[in-house]
Design a protein that fits this description.
Shape: globular
Strand order of the largest sheet: 7-8-6-5-9-3-10-16-4-17
CATH class: Alpha Beta
Low-confidence stretches: 1-40
CATH topology: Alkaline Phosphatase, subunit A
Strand content: 15-25%
Radius of gyration: 20 Å
Mean pLDDT: 90
Length: 421
């Protein structure tokens, strides 16, 4: 029987939409804000965090469970905020189209990676950064060739072409630091690398590359190849390719049948190594960091692990904020590409409005610092078309206020670099 103590919980759950952001004139009123001092005119470094599928309600759930009613996550404790519209050429986007809009400033069709509606390549922020002489990096808990990282460093007509994406990273965009999962796409079928085919945790995983042995190709191009936390820590500054799993760096199946979130290298550690490496370039860097678990676990309507993945993302954001405090010419952004699951927060009571299917009520979850709890309810196992929050700090952060199409992120970062669209 669910606890019927509702008063405090209901007060907490009245914080809807971007409740933790309290947008007023584009400023987050966060008690004890740890934002950097007045930003420089031009951003030297850009660190872009993507909590895949992480809408406003997810951020609220992560906050309540992590720091309580009146606390602030690292990702929320920033001086500027905005809302982003997420539609592609249709009302509900996928990660590829949403990512392309953010990376290149162009709306396109679902499934498109770095190409417009006519399937023509569009220049990305990472490619612009490379042209400015900056170092570049992509970090994710998903396959490093999955849609979100892919849109910054490749151009293919369909997001499923992951080996082509990998090859373009090496030969075309020449990304300096690549850290994530997805080793299966770097080795030809029947030729597994560090991670064996058909592992016990997921027998469907196997090497399936279509472009030859891309790990050997990367080594010939000067990349250090690492496959564990220890090897990553020992890697020298320079070009690094780190692949830490066959596919994603976690396992997701129908809830209760094997969901696991346990990346062998935590996102914060990958972020720290990327920052340490890329920041050796005096001209600066562009780094995209994605947490994929916030999306994949929401697809499974697993609120527990959606929250856990969000907590790991927040730790990585904390690493970036510490860097930005020491380097005020750094812009730090935290956003989502879209919302997943129709995630909502509900009080503890006996009702489950969504029924007993995949979208059944999840919980209860504790509110940090109190004896109160909340439930999570779902409306879908897919994406939704709602606006998503963005928070920003550092050099150029003042550009990120108001309500915008997601393409605005691309345009505003160019402006922060002192460039025109």
């Amino acid at each position: 029987m669910k606890n019927k103590k509702r008063s405090i919980v209901q007060a907490a759950l009245c914080l809807t939409a971007a409740a933790s952001l309290v947008i007023s004139g584009g400023v987050v009123h966060a008690k004890g804000s740890t934002a950097a001092a007045k930003p420089a005119t031009k951003a030297k470094n850009v660190i872009l965090f993507v909590g895949d599928g992480m809408g406003a309600a997810q951020r609220d759930a992560i906050r309540l469970n992590t720091v309580g009613l009146n606390g602030n996550l690292q990702m929320d404790d920033m001086p500027y905020s905005a809302l982003l519209r997420t539609h592609s050429t249709v009302a509900v986007t996928d990660s590829a189209a949403a990512g392309t809009a953010i990376a290149s400033g162009v709306k396109t069709y679902n499934g498109a990676v770095g190409v417009d509606v006519n399937k023509k390549p569009v220049k990305t922020l990472l490619e612009v950064a490379k042209g400015l002489g900056k170092s570049t990096g992509l970090v994710t808990t998903s396959q490093i060739t999955d849609a979100t990282p892919a849109v910054f460093g490749s151009h293919v007509e369909d997001r499923s072409q992951q080996s082509k994406i990998a090859k373009q990273y090496l030969d075309n965009s020449k990304v300096d630091v690549l850290l994530g999962g997805g080793e299966d796409f770097w080795y030809p079928a029947g030729n597994p690398g560090k991670f064996e085919d058909h592992p016990a945790e997921d027998p469907t995983e196997e090497s399936k590359g279509t472009e030859g042995n891309l790990v050997d190709h990367a080594k010939k191009l000067g990349y250090q190849y690492v496959t564990s936390k220890e090897e990553l820590q020992k890697a020298k500054y320079g070009k690094i390719l780190g692949l830490f799993a066959n596919e994603e760096m976690f396992q997701q199946k129908p809830e209760g049948e094997g969901d696991v979130y346990n990346p062998v290298v935590p996102l914060k550690d990958m972020t720290q190594k990327a920052l340490d490496t890329l920041s050796t370039n005096k001209k600066g860097f562009f780094l995209m960091v994605e947490e994929e678990g916030t999306d994949e676990m929401a697809h499974e309507n697993n609120a527990k692990l959606t929250i856990k993945a969000g907590q790991e993302l927040d730790k990585a954001v904390g690493v970036a904020k510490e860097f930005a405090k020491k380097h005020p010419d750094t812009l730090v952004l935290v956003l989502a590409d879209h919302e997943t699951g129709g995630f909502s927060l509900e009080p503890v009571d006996d009702k489950d409005e969504s029924g007993d299917g995949i979208s059944q009520e999840d919980g209860p979850f504790s509110i940090f610092g109190s004896k109160e709890q909340f439930y999570v309810d779902w409306t879908t196992s897919g994406h939704t078309g709602v606006d998503v929050p963005l928070t920003a700090m550092g050099s150029g952060a003042e550009l990120f206020t108001g309500v915008h199409e997601n393409t605005y992120v691309h345009d505003a970062i160019l402006k922060a670099w002192g460039l025109k669209k």
